[in-house]
């Protein structure tokens, strides 16, 4: 997914503010789900589930600056009944080296009471087919 860095994304030093990387990663996960036919609204309406970030670890390696074009990717590391562990990476467009990486554990919870719940079978099958588990790239 392509993300352009806007002025509002930067801090006083002219680089992307650290918390904004989480927004970029969230957008990439949302677009990834939408591409699988699993928009958040569909999951909430049909299965009564919402997704929450249960755990995240971020490695800030290099900064991005105003007007940079970034590519943000999502890879599945582990799929469980009620959670996925994803690896996410942001790079400058056309560059191989990561700027920021994150390992994110996403959990499914019931919208009505907030308790853990399993992903719908059709969604688990689509995720497995689209993003087979892969090792974390260097």
Summed up, the domain count is: 1
What structural class results from the helix and strand content?
alpha+beta
Overall geometry comes to elongated
Low-confidence stretches: none
Strand order of the largest sheet: 1-3-4-5-2
What portion of residues is helical?
10-25%
Q: How large a portion of the residues is in β-strands, by DSSP E?
A: 35-45%
The third-level CATH topology is Thiol Ester Dehydrase, Chain A
**How are helices and strands ordered from N to C?**
EHHEEEEH
Output the number of helix runs. 3
CATH class categorisation: Alpha Beta
For the secondary structure, the number of strands is 5
Radius of gyration: 16 Å
List keywords for this structure.
five-stranded antiparallel β-sheet, 138 residues, elongated, 5 strands, Thiol Ester Dehydrase, Chain A
């Amino acid at each position: 997914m392509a993300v352009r860095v806007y002025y509002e994304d930067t801090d006083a030093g002219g680089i992307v503010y650290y918390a904004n990387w989480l927004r970029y990663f969230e957008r990439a996960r949302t677009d990834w789900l939408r591409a699988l036919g699993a928009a958040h609204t569909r999951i909430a309406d049909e299965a009564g589930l919402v997704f929450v970030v249960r755990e995240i670890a971020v490695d800030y390696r290099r900064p991005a600056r105003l007007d940079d074009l970034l590519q943000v990717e999502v890879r599945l590391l582990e799929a469980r009944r009620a959670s996925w562990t994803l690896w996410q990476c942001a790079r400058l467009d056309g560059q191989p080296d990561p700027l920021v990486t994150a390992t994110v554990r996403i959990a499914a919870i019931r919208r009505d009471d907030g308790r853990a719940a399993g992903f719908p079978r059709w969604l688990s099958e689509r995720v497995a087919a689209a993003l087979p588990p892969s090792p974390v790239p260097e």
